[in-house]
Structures are given as structure tokens and as C-alpha cells.
User: Which sequence fits this backbone?
């Protein structure tokens, strides 16, 4: 997980094995503020920002002069933990102070808060593996984010992108340059990048493999015809020759069809049964269901990754089969057929429609 990145750097350095080390740049490699500063120094597109371990003049001036909305988040958060899109100065200031009072999803408390410009555009993922500064792209994905349950940016899925597309070429080139700017020379990386009107801009570089407990691995292997970021990472550390013969980018077109579908709940309550999960497991393209929800669990309305109710991997040689199965899952969600709730539990259906009209066009765009 995210919290293990720093420990792995220190351990690999002391064991004198292949490493990025824990000195210099990599003393703060998880710090999103530092990442942006390094990109700016390298002359790359970076995010306008200000940060502080407490409220200070730089933060106040940034929030008074930056165009709203702005993003306020911890400097070393994971996923969407603590990330909020703030629409005015008072909201941003309130969230800034609140982040020091809540425990982070990875444990511990936030020690610094980052305020950034809001990047308008789709958010993509570029998964890479490096060895001695040579970078290999293993997959390119795009997040499917939409308004739901009153929240502007709810994850609905992650879809593979054809590596021969113009957008993929732009993203791969930018990502490789970002890795160089961050001096990320060895191991896997998981870059999140917004493709803005002025070109790609890094959201954050996660100096590790893609997360999700590896539920995406089988899909990634099928898309390339045999390897994923996991196998490439093993080769990077243990087999120089095997790594050297890996393609610089995955094949185009992909060898299969599929995607990750992130499950969204429009209802809340105590779960009595999970009939929708049984339907999903019988879908023709079904590969894997990951969820922490079961009988007795309390489900909340999905507003971020933390409140999602599961992740489904779909994979098939026929694209129509995949699309039909996605439609079935979305029907189950919208009609509250994923779960049976205990009758004493309060349930609100289709909450997303309540606040949808209040969301501006800029809110509906990806963060």
C-alpha cells in the first residue's frame, strides 16, 4: 500500500539492492507538492498550488486569487481520501483546517495540506515500470467519473485506452518526462494525469504499482496478450534480458475487451442480502468481484472510492458481451437491486438526482 512505499525505499537502499533510494528527491517522493515543484523546475506543465502545515499567508493569498473551484487535499493522501473540490474561499479554508483533525485512510494524521488549481479535463492513468531510467508503459487507462449522490466526481470505472491513439501518445510521452523529472529510475509507477486543453498535467505520481489489490492484473494481461505491470516489475528487478525485450508500449489493438466497473450505491442501510452480486457473478464476461460488503454491513451512498461498494472485472473476446454486461450492472445499481436491506434501515433511492441540478458544468468535469 501507499504507506509501504517509504519503507521499501529505505529497506532496499540498506540492503544494497536495486532502488531509487531514500535521499534527496525521494526523501519526499509521496509529497504531491514536491512532485509539482520538480515538474515546474524541469519546465513541464504543472499545477498552480500553495501548501502549508498550518494556515499561512501563501495559502491565504493563493485561495484569494485563484479561480474557483479549487482542490484542497492532504499532500500525501491516497485515492480520493480527503480530496475536496471547494467553490469559494470560506469552504476552502474550512476544509483546510478540517483535514488536520481527521485520520487519513492510510493511518496517522495529515501534517500538511495542499491547495491546487482545478484541472479541467479527463483523468487518465499511465502504468509504467522502469529499470535504470528506461521506462516501459504497461497500460493506459481512463477513469469514468460522473456526478452521483450529490457528489461531483464519483468513480464508475476504469477503461483501457488504445495505445496508438493520439491521447495515449501524448500521455505516454508526458509521463516518461515526468518520471525523469522526479528521478524515478527503478520499479513500477502509477501516474494520474489530466489531459487539459493545454496538454497533459500530472495530478500525482504514485511510485508503486497500481493498487486495487491487483484485481486488474488478469485484465491487463489479456489486453497485452501475456504480461502486466506485475510481471514487468519482476523482470525489471530480477531479469535484465527479459525486461529489455518487453515492448515499450502495449500492443494496438488490444488482444481482448474489458474494463473495471466500480460499483455505486444509490441506497443506504444495513445489508440483509446481496442478490445483485450473484447476478453479476453469472455474467458472461465476469472475471472477478472484489468487495468488503456482505450481510450485516452498513452501506452508504457512494460519493468517492472509499464508499464504493465493490469492483468488478469484466473480460471477453467479444466487445458486445462486455457492453451488455456493463448495462446489466448499471441497471442493478439504479434500481437498487444490488442489496436487500433490513427493513429497519433507512434507505433513500436515487439520491444523485437531488443535487444534480445544482452542479455546474465545471463541477461535472473530472478532477
Assistant:
Amino acid at each position: 500500500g501507499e504507506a509501504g512505499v517509504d519503507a521499501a525505499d529505505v529497506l532496499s537502499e540498506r540492503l544494497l539492492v536495486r532502488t531509487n533510494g531514500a535521499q534527496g528527491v525521494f526523501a519526499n517522493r509521496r509529497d504531491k507538492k514536491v512532485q509539482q515543484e520538480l515538474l515546474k523546475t524541469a519546465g513541464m506543465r504543472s499545477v498552480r498550488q500553495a501548501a502549508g502545515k498550518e494556515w499561512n499567508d501563501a495559502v491565504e493569498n493563493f485561495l484569494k486569487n485563484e479561480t474557483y473551484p479549487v482542490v484542497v487535499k492532504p499532500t500525501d493522501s491516497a485515492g480520493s481520501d480527503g480530496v475536496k473540490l471547494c467553490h469559494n474561499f470560506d469552504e476552502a479554508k474550512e476544509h483546510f483546517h478540517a483535514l488536520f483533525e481527521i485520520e487519513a485512510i492510510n493511518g496517522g494524521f495529515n501534517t500538511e495540506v495542499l491547495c491546487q488549481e482545478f484541472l479541467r479535463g479527463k483523468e487518465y492513468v499511465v502504468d509504467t515500470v522502469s529499470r535504470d531510467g528506461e521506462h516501459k508503459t504497461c497500460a493506459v487507462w481512463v477513469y469514468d467519473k460522473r456526478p452521483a449522490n450529490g457528489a461531483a466526481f464519483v468513480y464508475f470505472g476504469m477503461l483501457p485506452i488504445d495505445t496508438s491513439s493520439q491521447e495515449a501518445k501524448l500521455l505516454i510521452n508526458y509521463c516518461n518526462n515526468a518520471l525523469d523529472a522526479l528521478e524515478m529510475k527503478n520499479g513500477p509507477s502509477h501516474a494520474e494525469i489530466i489531459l487539459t486543453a493545454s496538454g497533459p498535467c500530472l495530478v500525482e505520481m504514485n511510485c508503486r504499482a497500481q493498487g486495487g489489490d491487483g484485481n486488474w492484473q488478469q485484465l491487463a494481461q489479456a489486453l497485452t496478450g501475456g504480461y502486466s505491470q506485475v510481471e514487468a516489475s519482476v523482470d525489471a528487478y530480477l531479469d535484465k534480458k527479459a525486461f529489455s525485450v518487453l515492448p515499450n508500449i502495449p500492443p494496438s489493438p488490444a488482444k481482448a475487451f474489458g474494463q473495471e466497473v466500480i460499483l455505486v450505491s444509490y441506497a443506504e442501510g444495513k445489508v440483509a442480502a446481496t442478490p445483485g452480486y450473484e447476478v453479476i457473478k453469472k455474467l458472461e464476461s465476469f472475471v472477478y468481484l472484489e468487495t468488503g460488503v456482505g450481510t450485516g454491513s452498513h452501506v452508504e451512498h457512494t460519493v468517492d472510492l472509499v464508499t464504493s461498494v465493490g469492483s468488478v472485472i469484466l473480460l471477453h473476446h467479444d466487445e458486445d458481451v462486455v457492453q451488455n454486461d456493463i448495462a446489466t450492472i448499471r441497471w442493478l445499481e439504479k434500481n437498487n437491486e444490488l442489496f436487500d436491506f433490513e427493513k429497519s434501515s433507512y434507505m433513500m433511492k436515487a439520491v444523485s438526482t437531488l443535487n444534480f441540478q445544482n452542479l455546474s458544468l465545471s463541477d461535472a468535469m473530472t478532477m
About this structure: DSSP finds eleven helices and 15 strands in the chain.
